[in-house]
Amino acid sequence: MDRSTKKSNGQDGRRIGWQQVLDLYMRTNLKAEVI
Q: Which domain of life does the UniProt lineage start with (predicted)?
């Protein structure tokens, strides 16, 4: 997956991926804290 991402979008795709992961991680933490 890493190689494909680099060939397809390069840093942009990788950056977007990180943002999505961080967003999901933050949401999960918020839900966990609320529960």
A: Eukaryota
